[in-house]
Amino acid sequence: MGEPDPGPIISGYIASYLYALACLAITSAVSAFTRSQVICFIISVAICLLLFLFGFQQVVDFLLKVTPASLDGLVRFIAELCFMTHFYEMSKGLLVFDDVLYFLSVVGVCLGITHYAIQAKRA
Question: Buried b / exposed e across 54-91, counting CB within 10 Å, b at 16+?
């Protein structure tokens, strides 16, 4: 029914794929430290939900109002580490190298943690 712009479509798929990879890597790292699948699921969903929610400007503004002024830098730092701040730009059609590198580094760090946790259990 028209000619859609392929740029936002392709970058949206790439962003969704990287987001899913990051969530799976976090789940893998949590799974390496727990024995129960249910506990792993609950902790992983909680971590991914927090990384999702702290990326919204409304949540950041609320946290800035609630927390003392001395913690404003920490709140902004945590908000910058969240998924949505990096996902939002890529879903609009902008493949920024920093955002792609962020998701790949989250995946790499979480898989490294998983590797070392499994190696520590074997020893």
Answer: bbeeebbeebeeeeeeeeeeebeebbeebbbbbbebbb
Lowest average pLDDT, out of 11-20, 76-85, 103-112, 113-122, goes to 76-85
Token digits of residue 47: 């971590």
**Tokens coding 63:** 């946290």
Q: In Å, how far are 59, 61, 75 from 65, measured between CA atoms?
A: 10, 6, 11
Q: pLDDT, tens digit, for every residue of 48-89?
A: 999 998 888 898 889 889 888 888 888 888 888 888 888 888
What size, in residues, is the chain?
Answer: 123
Q: Is the entire prediction scored with pTM above 0.90?
A: no
Amino acid at 109: V
